[in-house]
Design brief:
With 215 residues, the protein is α/β, with parallel strands linked by helices. Helix content is 41%, strand content 10%. The protein has a 6-stranded parallel β-sheet, sandwiched between helices. Helix 3 packs across helix 4. The longest helix is centred in the middle third of the chain and has 19 residues. Bound molecules: 6-O-phosphono-alpha-D-glucopyranose and magnesium ion. The site of 6-O-phosphono-alpha-D-glucopyranose has 17 residues, from helix 1 and helix 3. 6-O-phosphono-alpha-D-glucopyranose binds next to helix 1 and helix 3.
Length: 215
Amino acid sequence: PVKAIIFDLDGVLTDTAEGHYQAWQRLADELDVPFDREKNEALKGIDRMGSLERILADSGRTLTEAEKQEAATRKNGYYQDLIARFSPDDLFDGVRDLLLAAKAAGLKLGVASASRNAPTLLTRLGIIDLFDHVADAGAIPNPKPAPDIFLSVAKALDVPPPACLGVEDSMAGITAIKAAGMPALGIGDPAILTEADEVIGHIREFRLDRFVRPA
Ligand code: G6P
Ligand code: MG
């Protein structure tokens, strides 16, 4: 049975996947490189510089190291403007109750987000104290789709990977969870999240009793 749940953040607990997309689209338009929602799908879960590298690679455009740093910083500024007013009202429906019910059932809770903004966002959403461990994205050697971030959270929670349920909205994230040897619950479209063990459309459909033994 599941003893811990390790959540992705953006697009799982709150609607920031859309914010990341909007910020990348704005930057891509300014750089005059092609970008759209379909290309963005493959960037979900990918860290900031990795995302920029992919956008540039697709366009054939090259930037100097300094230009890349500037562009990544500019995108982050757009993103931070979008989340500046986030509050507990921006949690997806059902998230707070789900976290409280999971804790009451004795599960450990972790966050495995590639975002350097995760601690700030979790604080604004008013839920940071509900987690036993939040990964420090800057300290993880290999980014998603590598399993490192999920393994690092499992270790911090002291729960073996097969007893950790990973919850993700991104292809890269589901690949990372499976590579970590964990069951994967996808949030989104089953036609996209094909590697997930199970897919639901929205976190409000999460049924805790499917994963834990009734007390
Ligand atoms: C998450 C999002 C990605 C984002 C990454 C880095 O994984 O799904 O879209 O690029 O975090 O976020 P950051 O806030 O550090 O730029
Ligand atoms: Mg995500």
